[in-house]
Amino acid sequence: MSTISFYTNPMSRGQIARWALHEAGAEYEQILLEYGTSMKTEDYLKINPMGKVPAIMHDGKVVTEGATICVYLADSFSDARLAAKANERADYYRWLFYASGPLEAAITNRSMGFEVAPDKEMMAGYGNYDRVVEVLNAKFQADAYVCGSRFTTADVYVGVQVVWGTQFGTLPERDSLVAYAKRVTDRDAYLSAKPIDDALIAENS
User: CA 16, 17, 23 angle in degrees (round to 5)?
Assistant: First the structure.
């Protein structure tokens, strides 16, 4: 299988994709891009017209969006056993898209100072921030991972949202969320991927 071209910036959601690459055991070549310059070049816009990272190119195909990259790598590198089993698919897809949809929207809006008025909750889709958090909290009060007792690539994407949220204060430090963040960041793949981005950040600071 060919080496993956991995387009990223250490100060970005590229950290999600790097962690997923390490979980999958995939060989990759990183291409570092900068905001406002190399991300907006004609060559890169042919890869991702949004002009953002992460993106990967594998066997001539481009994959963008963090959640999609996680699922794609799980499917492409099946030996890593990161994809959902038949009886796990409901939770796998439900919480993966919960994190990439309602959770991320609620966190982003709140971080930008936008609160959904009670009479506008139907328009917002996710309702309100507090409800989104309580649903997530209840999930990890009941289960160790997205699919119950087994780690899957869904825990890379959901895990990053919880890790960053509890680290930067965009999610409350509920016991269940802090414990979940600890479980996923104790993984060997996370511990091998994160220092790479940390070192790149330090080089450019």
Answer: 95
